[in-house]
Structure formats: structure tokens, C-alpha cells
Amino acid sequence: MSKGVLIVTGGSRGIGRATVLLAAARGYDVVFSYVSDEAAARSLVAAVEAAGGKAVAVKSDIGSEADTLALFAEADRHGTLVGLVNNAGVVDLPARMDEISVERLERMLRINVIGSIVAAREALKRMSTRHGGKGGAIVNLSSAAATLGSPGQYVHYAAAKGAIDVFTLGLGREVAAEGVRVNAIRPGLIDTDIHASGGIPDRVAQLRESIPMKREGTAEECANAILWLISDESSYTTASVVTVSGGR
Ligand code: NAP
């Protein structure tokens, strides 16, 4: 029997993809978004269906409120929303803050902060008992950058993820009595394409030795923590951030 509908933003690749696969295997009907790589989205739907699960791909830019409303409207067609994984996120090419443009700052904050907040707002309208919902769980994607600051590379990204930490704390407490738990995971260095999109394809190899466990993490290790926070197994955990970083 279906556990209900789970939305995963940016679900087509990386940590989102692993989360979609695990959630579908555990019985959630997954509605996930992507923004450009339609082939990756299609192949993920096929992989989920081949394993007997259900997944729906929606092209939806998390930086656009209209797209996010359309993503939730599509999810509504598939059943009751029980969870949201605010996974979609971007890095940027390395830059010092004395050379950053407002355009780059706005893109970073619109996608990584405002996008997650707007999606959480839509989830609350459906899940909070204050709005007649039956409860649910939200998991945000923070980053070890929020505690390290990423000097010389991505201070603006780190600041955006710091905002996600505070948002998780505040919203978790705001809706704790309304049946909705809000948590985050804080990945360290995870082996995905995000490092190449940030202009440093060998970033993981460069920094591997600095990780106490001496290895990068996998998208699946992040998905395991995300699904624990979505599930009732974490029923007394809210307003918390779980670090998944090999000790970094
Ligand atoms: P990734 O491999 O680059 O995948 C990003 C996913 O997000 C793709 O499915 C992409 O869709 C989608 N996406 C990008 N921009 C989007 C937008 N504007 N609207 C909707 N979807 C969008 O990234 P990842 O490494 O899995 O990272 C996932 C999350 O974990 C991010 O929030 C990231 O900041 C965080 N994180 C990652 C690491 C790490 O080491 N990998 C560490 C700490 C935190 P397309 O396929 O269509 O491009």
C-alpha cells in the first residue's frame, strides 16, 4: 500500500535521484522535479517503474514560484502529500566576495533559499493540521559549507545554506504542534556532479584527505538519512540538522 505522496525537488540526479529511488522502494509515490536534464529524469522514472514503484517527473524550476505551484498541483493529482524533500540546489563558479555580482547573489539565494521556503510553504498548506492536513515531514538540504564558510570558493553558497539551517530551526519550532516535522541533513563532500557544475570537477579528490573518514560520501548515504527523517522512525526529531559528512 502506498505511504502517500513525497515531493523531491531536483530529484533527477545526485542526492535527489538516490532519494527518489529509495523512497519509491519504501512505498512512497514520488513526484520529483528537474530543470534541464530531461533524459536523466526519464531514465529515473523508468528505473523506479522497473523496480515496481511509482515516480512522476515534472519540469519545474525551484527559482520560479509559478513552477513550484505547478509542481504541487501535479502532486495533488496523485494523492495525499506526506512529505517534501527540499533538495534542489546549485553551487556557482568559485569567487571571492569582493568580486561577486548582485546577479550571482540573487540566483544563489533565489534557488537555494527562497525556492526551499516557498516549497515548504506549499507543503504546509497541505500537511499542517492548522490547514486541515494530517501532518507530514519536510527535509531541507543544508551543507557542511554552512559550518565551514567556504572561504575563497563559495561564501555566498555557504551563507545560503546557513539560512537553510536557521529556517529549519525556526519553521520546525513554528509548526511542531501542527503535525509537521522539519529537519535538514548537512552533507559533507558527496560524490555527485555538483562539483563539476561549480567548476571544480576534481574537488572531491582534492579534499579527500581532509575528511576524517578519508573518503567522500555517496548519494545513497544521504538518501538513507533523508528517508529516516521523512519516516515515523524519527517521530520525536524536529528542528534538527543531521550531519552526513564522514566527520568533516
Ligand atoms: P547535483 O548532482 O548537481 O543535482 C542537482 C539536481 O537539482 C538535479 O536533479 C538538477 O536538475 C536539479 N536542479 C538544479 N537546479 C534546479 C532548479 N533551479 N530547479 C529544480 N531543480 C534543479 O546536486 P547534488 O550534489 O545532488 O546536491 C543536492 C543538494 O545537496 C543541493 O541542495 C546541494 O547544495 C546539497 N549538497 C550537496 C553536496 C555534495 O557534495 N554533492 C554537499 C552539501 C550539500 P537537472 O538534472 O535538470 O539539472
From TrEMBL:
Residues 4-210 form the Ketoreductase domain. The keyword Oxidoreductase applies. It holds the Pfam family adh_short_C2. One of its GO terms (molecular function) is glucose 1-dehydrogenase [NAD(P)+] activity. The keyword Oxidoreductase applies. Gene3D superfamilies: NAD(P)-binding Rossmann-like Domain (3.40.50.720). SMART domains: PKS_KR. SUPFAM superfamilies: NAD(P)-binding Rossmann-fold domains. Keywords: Oxidoreductase. Its EC number is 1.1.1.47. InterPro entries: KR_dom, NAD(P)-bd_dom_sf, Sc_DH/Rdtase_CS, SDR_fam. Belongs to the short-chain dehydrogenases/reductases (SDR) family. This is Sugar dehydrogenase. It comes from Prosthecodimorpha hirschii.
